[in-house]
Specification:
The complex is a heterodimer of chains A (432) and B (446).
Chain A lengths: L1 H10 L12 E4 L5 E6 L5 E9 L12 H8 L3 E2 L2 E2 H11 L2 E6 L3 E9 L3 H13 L5 H19 L2 H14 L12 H5 L3 H11 L5 E7 L3 H12 L21 E5 L4 E9 L8 H12 L6 H8 L7 E7 L4 E10 L3 H18 L3 H14 L7 H13 L6 H10 L3 H11 L6 E6 L5
Parallel strand pairs in A: 2-8, 9-13
Antiparallel strand pairs in A: 1-2, 3-7, 3-8, 4-5, 6-7, 10-12, 10-13, 11-12
Chain B lengths: L2 H12 L11 E5 L5 E6 L5 E8 L13 H8 L11 H8 L3 E6 L4 E8 L3 H13 L5 H20 L2 H13 L13 H5 L3 H11 L5 E7 L3 H11 L24 E6 L7 E8 L8 H14 L6 H9 L3 E8 L7 E9 L5 H18 L3 H18 L3 H12 L5 H12 L3 H11 L5 E7 L6
Parallel strand pairs in B: 2-6, 7-11
Antiparallel strand pairs in B: 1-2, 3-5, 3-6, 4-5, 8-10, 8-11, 9-10
Helix pairs in contact in B: 2-8, 10-16, 11-12
The chains are: A alpha+beta (432), B alpha+beta (446).
Chain lengths: 432, 446
Amino acid sequence: MKYFTTFILWVFLAGTLSAATKITEVTSPGGITAWFVEEQSIPIVSISLSFQGGTVLDSVEKQGATNLMMGLLEEGAGTLDASAFLEASDDLGTRFRFRAARDSVSITASMLKSDLDKSVALLRLALISPNFDQIAFDRVREQVNSSIRAGVTDPQSVAGMAFNQLVYGDHPYGRDREGTLETVAALTPDDMRIAHQRSMTKDRLVIGVVGAITPEELGLLLDDLLADLPETSIGELTDIAVSTSADITVIDFDTPQSVAIFGTRGLPRDDPDFLTAFVLNHIMGGRVTTARLNVELRQKRGLTYGISSFLLPYRNAATFLGRLSSNNDSMAEAVNLVKSEWAKMAEFGITQEELDIAVRYLTGAYPLRFEGNAEIAGIITGLQIANLPIDYPQTRNDQVRAVTLADMNRVAARIFLPEELLFVVVGQPEGL
Amino acid sequence: MDRLLKFTALALLFMASPLTAQEVPITSYTLDNGLEIVVIEDNRAPTVTHMVWYKVGAADEPPGKSGIAHFLEHLMFKGTKAFPDGTFQQIIEANGGDDNAFASQDFTGYFQHIAVDRLPLMMEMEADRMRGLILDDAAMLTELDVVLEERALRTESDPGSLFTEQRDAALFLNHPYGTPVIGWKHEVEALTLQDALDFYELYYAPNNAILVVAGDVVPAEVLAMAEQFYGPIAPSDGIKPRVRPQEPPQTSARRLVYRDDRVANPYVIRNYLAPNRKSGNQQQAAALTLLADLLGGGGISSLMGRRLQLDEGIALSTGAFYRGQSYDPNSFGVFVVPRPGVTLEEAEARMDATLQFLLENGVEPERLARSKRQLLAAQIYAMDSQRGLAQRYGAALTSGLTIADVQAWPDVLQAVTAEDIQAAAQDLFDIRRSVTGYLTGPEASQ
């Protein structure tokens, strides 16, 4: 068999990381630290800023404040109103994105080398001196409202919200990131200022930079951009223990295809077994054709276009989740297959062959992630948030290869908990 | 602050430096069997994107067989004699690569993203399935269920997608662009193994394909490798010129209303029939590209955004889009999502007033200059995406354009004048060649 020989030949070459992705730590004269990859071949600079905290710091009454605040940063700052800000951004060819996630608010900025100083000055305005004027506030709030309304009629989002409420209860993780129509209606521009002061402080900030700039230039840039941020903020959450039971909650929704979210408690990012669990999840529900759920539901039976599972380690709560969609007449069969795969994995674990295949894929695919300046800036920011060492990209594949079958099967029993596997199904599934 | 004053203050602070167009070096070649090859060098990381694009898409399907191009795209992963039973993807995954495929009206493409030293293996496997696909009924029927699930996910679960299908069907009276790429459900359900094999044998051949390789490669080595793996494949003598049924003169404006309980934010959208980019003659398409950007490309900084979102405050969002890269003439669209309390009729009237304003007043030179700068900036950012560069060439070359057209495009865009845009708008905005659609929820006020 010709392919077999080729296959063996190629396999052991995988997993070398480009020298270009050597990360260094840069500290500005003012004491701001960033992880940095110098990439001079394209005249752009990409910056990823992530402030830990996020929408979960909103109080019950002010749900949605952080999300709306992030949507307003580019809607007028300093002497510029929303149009003037956007026009300046267009003129300079900058690409700014402002996002509010549960655990962090983030800004990604790609800028042209030719106008770097002016682009930084513009971004600084948005970070330090947003206006939150009433006109822009009213307009963007209407857009958020439309997004909230759309969520109520979207089966995926209905399933997500219901699952979060069941799993996290009254904890902020159980609430919607965008807030509700009621809480958003009650927000004011002053709430934006409070959320801004609370969210974006130096003690919460993690930075990744990739691009055509020297470390010295970057140090000066960081001070220009960020020195005037407040030093510290308040507001932290306590960890919560997630617990689920083996129920199926069906939410009636008039649609030909049901969607399901399923899951249990998971592992926090700093758990010593996290990497092993990551490899296990890859074997069960990773985005590869050989993943067990893909083989059983899609390849063998054509029950779904896509099914996947993933570990979701929030800062204060960890879950292990999966998603799938299937026509109303086949969802019951799909759910039963997921349950039996979960039980099989918990009881029998995996084989050495499965582990070998997973390790080959994961170690080969890892270097491919380091492509594109903005992507790399995001990755090196993520490494810092996860408290990983700066040489992690160089050692990560060795750590994956070091996972043993015994580890895998011990952790399989730990994370695959069929007696706790909760399903939320939205649609009109027959027989559920 | 006065608008003019503000502009001056802004100009002092944020006046941008001049930009020049940047081009990525490419090498091209055609094998004796007709396979066209494009090599794009990107030496930042030891990776490669390997793509094969076939000059066949949904618009080339036989009548009554809608969805066969996309269904065949799924079946291409089933196996060959050399790589049977799904080993194609297993081998790629065992090598740490990612792969996928896509189908559109004008092309069907397959790609892998993998460590660059695996390029020969990718070529070996992709060349093998160009002519060597083996299918059986069991595999076919299971995959048909997957495709129906995909249609349920992408189309039937999304009222906006269902509405788009109806609008496209109404816009194209005769051209197959009126049929959805994924296929009408009742026709997809009836597709057979023979349909797939017939389509495959007719269209999958080196003289109907483009090979695009982007990554950390040496062009001469890629060409030699391509000669080795793709060179021996015999061309097909069944490839005919792509002549699809064309539109008759359109003389009647069409209006559609689609109601669906799942619609939370109603909108009005209008598509006009529009010319496409033509090889050696891209000026009008360039003017339309800039028109789309100036009219509705940048949120509140575009003409519709300024008028309807900021000044009049009647819209949540607005936009314009242009499908210019297309083998045959396609469409130009504008839409308005009104604020709650504003009817779709009012929104449409204000949208029309904006189009009328543009026809009468043209575009402002300073805004045109800004749009052009953004296009130059986009050209620089595009160099950061290996796959994006590969897609640019693959999509153009399967849509009737040449490498020279792709390379000329940035300059053609920069040469567009305000007069060109106004003239293009005057040709375009003919209500008789349009479809206006209302997407509404259960309690629509219309």
